[in-house]
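Question (not urgent): is this output format expected?
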Amino acid sequence: MGEVYRASDPRLGREVAIKVLPAAFTFDAERLRRFEQEARAASALNHPNILTVHDIGTHEECPYLVCELLHGKTLRDLLGEAPLPVQKAADYARQLASGLAAAHAKEIIHRDLKPENVFVTDDGRVKILDFGLAKLLPPIRTDEGGPAVASTETGMILGTMGYMSPEQAQGMRVDHRTDLFSLGAVLYEMVSGRPAF
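Got this back:
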């Protein structure tokens, strides 16, 4: 969601990426909410496997994010070429798990992990992108004192079919395990060259 531009930050003398919400979406309250949520979620995290957000703002009523500029390809682009060697897939999965663990430690659930939201830099570093569907609120405890869960409106389904956990696909409450399910689906696709579902 959004258009991404390469730009120069003259104050700090570095190149950055600017993600702008298209003007047509600025009147869509739900898209604005998700865009702002992406900024809050990503900026709350400081981890080498998560895209770094430097700034957020609005210019002529168009919201934007200023992020680190990445050089490389999305995992989807890499998978279009051929399945990955097992060693490389395992390394990428380890890096994804490390980034997700950092997000989960801050009580953030990504809820849309898929090859399009994973970027592999030219030097082999994996970066998790697009926290637009992330759940930011503190978790809710079950009545039985069970695991922490994050709620979505009952029956609301957010995410990408084929990568969602069964609970997420049914619009049920989810916790960090929904991201682990998605990670498993992504790992399967990296090794086999085809989607798990």
